């Protein structure tokens, strides 16, 4: 039965399955019983509401957050957040986190034998403007090994979290880089059904580059519907 109010449900085949055995963590964490669809009520479809004023200082440049400039290749990552009908979504909180140029996270759990950068925490946030646009300046993340299988390496990626206009438009995903040879070997990327996984690969955008400063990658994000950006990875 359709929800009396609220958003359309996810379109089958556009989202990664809870269980994808090649991605070992999903074996333990995936539900063993059928999930229950909870009806959308006003609580789920009317908030939270974000504005630049409510979020406070905007940390959208990860290269100026510390005393010195971080090491690595400076890049622009930008795009537009849209709803299921292609309309821009203003006032969306966009958060990102990532490893540094050497492939190490600024986090105590990450004990990868690669150097930390004291000038790069890898965390930032922004709020979309009236056109649904967001823009970050950051460092291109490195690949890093992980214990999923023998000699497993994650392709370079940036984690994203978005709060759309309501709780049911929350989206957590990963952005990848075009032409990365590790994409074909990554169980997380390949756990997303094709062709939806291609929506996770950013595109090089010459028009957004900053001369003498930074190359640029466009990553548009669709919160719901048939062209929805895959979430939950
Ligand atoms: Fe990661």
What percent of residues are in strands? Answer: 15-25%
DSSP summary: helix tally: 4
Report the helical percentage: under 10%
Domains, number: 1
Q: What letter string, H or E per element, gives the SSE order?
A: HHHEEEEEEEEHEEE
Secondary structure class reads mainly beta
Question: What is the general shape?
Answer: globular
Summarize model confidence as the mean pLDDT. Answer: 92
Through-space gap between termini: 28 Å
CATH homologous superfamily classification: Aromatic compound dioxygenase
Rg (CA only) = 18 Å
| The first-level CATH class name | Mainly Beta
What is the gist of this entry?
It is built from 4 helices and 11 strands, in the order αααββββββββαβββ.
Write the layout of secondary structure elements.
Blueprint: H1 25-29, H2 42-45, H3 52-55, E1 74-82, E2 93-97, E3 123-127, E4 133-139, E5 144-145, E6 153-154, E7 157-163, E8 171-176, H4 187-190, E9 203-204, E10 215-218, E11 221-222
Parallel strand pairs: 1-10, 1-11
Antiparallel strand pairs: 1-4, 2-3, 2-7, 5-6, 7-8, 9-10
The chain binds fe (ii) ion (FE2).
Fe (ii) ion binds next to β7.
Question: How would you describe what is shown here?
Answer:
This protein is mostly beta strands and 233 residues long. The two termini are 28 Å apart. The strands form 3 sheets. Strands 1, 4, 9, 10 and 11 form a 5-stranded mixed β-sheet that branches. It has a 4-stranded antiparallel β-sheet with strand order 3-2-7-8, with no helix packed on it. The protein has a two-stranded antiparallel ribbon with strand order 5-6. Helix content is 7%, strand content 22%. The chain has helices at 25-29, 42-45, 52-55, 187-190; strands at residues 74-82, 93-97, 123-127, 133-139, 144-145, 153-154, 157-163, 171-176, 203-204, 215-218, 221-222. The chain has a single domain, classed as Protocatechuate 3,4-Dioxygenase, subunit A. It binds fe (ii) ion. Fe (ii) ion binds at residues 154, 157, 159.
């Amino acid at each position: 039965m359709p929800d009396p109010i609220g958003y359309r449900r996810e379109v089958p085949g556009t989202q990664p399955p809870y269980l994808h055995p090649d991605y070992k963590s999903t074996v333990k964490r995936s539900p063993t019983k059928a999930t229950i669809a909870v009806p959308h009520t006003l609580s789920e479809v009317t908030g939270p509401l974000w504005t630049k004023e409510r979020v406070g200082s905007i940390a959208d440049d990860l290269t100026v957050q510390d005393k010195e400039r971080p090491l690595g290749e400076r890049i622009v990552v930008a795009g537009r957040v849209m709803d299921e009908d292609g309309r821009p979504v203003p006032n969306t909180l966009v958060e990102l986190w990532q490893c540094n140029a050497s492939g190490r996270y600024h986090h105590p759990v990450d004990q990868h034998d690669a150097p930390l950068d004291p000038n790069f925490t890898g965390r930032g946030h922004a709020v979309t403007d009236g056109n649904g646009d967001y823009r970050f300046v950051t460092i291109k993340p490195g690949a890093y090994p992980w214990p999923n299988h023998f000699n497993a390496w994650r392709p370079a990626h940036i984690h994203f979290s978005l709060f759309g206009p309501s709780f049911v438009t929350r989206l957590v995903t990963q952005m990848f880089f075009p032409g990365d040879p590790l994409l074909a070997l990554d169980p997380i990327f390949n756990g997303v059904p094709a062709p939806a996984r291609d929506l996770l690969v950013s595109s090089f955008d010459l028009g957004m580059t900053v001369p003498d400063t930074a190359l640029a990658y466009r990553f548009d994000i669709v919160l719901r519907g048939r062209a929805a950006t895959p979430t939950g990875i």
